Backbone:
């Protein structure tokens, strides 16, 4: 039996999304560069998702919302989408306020109970 060993880097699972860390503070001047990075990472991985680590963007403002919206638009045009990692609650609230919905890493899907949560049953409840 022959065993062929390959040289070079190991094969990487293409289903693992690329991660883009956004440095803080995010300004509108960074928009073209960040959009180009999203487009490039979608092309490199062949995947449909780029994870954007937004933990370090600092206090959220409309500039951050504008940059994220343009990055999402760029990703959609390239056939993908972005997912936020570690967003500040204030950023999530601001995105919701302006009507932008972003997928968040670790977020429970709609209609699904959170992991480790059990529904309580009252002793007088009828069986289903």
Residues:
């Amino acid at each position: 039996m022959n065993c062929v060993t390959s040289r070079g880097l190991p094969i990487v699972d293409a289903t693992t999304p690329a991660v883009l860390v956004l440095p803080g503070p995010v300004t509108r001047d960074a928009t073209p560069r960040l959009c180009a990075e999203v487009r490039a990472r979608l092309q490199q991985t062949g995947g449909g998702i780029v994870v954007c680590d937004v933990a370090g963007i600092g206090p959220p403002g409309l500039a951050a919302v504008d940059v994220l919206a343009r990055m999402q638009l760029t990703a959609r045009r390239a056939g993908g989408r972005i997912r936020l990692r570690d967003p500040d609650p204030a950023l999530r609230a601001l995105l919701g306020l302006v009507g932008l919905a972003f997928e968040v890493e670790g977020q429970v899907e709609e209609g699904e109970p959170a992991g480790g949560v059990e529904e309580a049953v009252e002793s007088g409840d009828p069986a289903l």
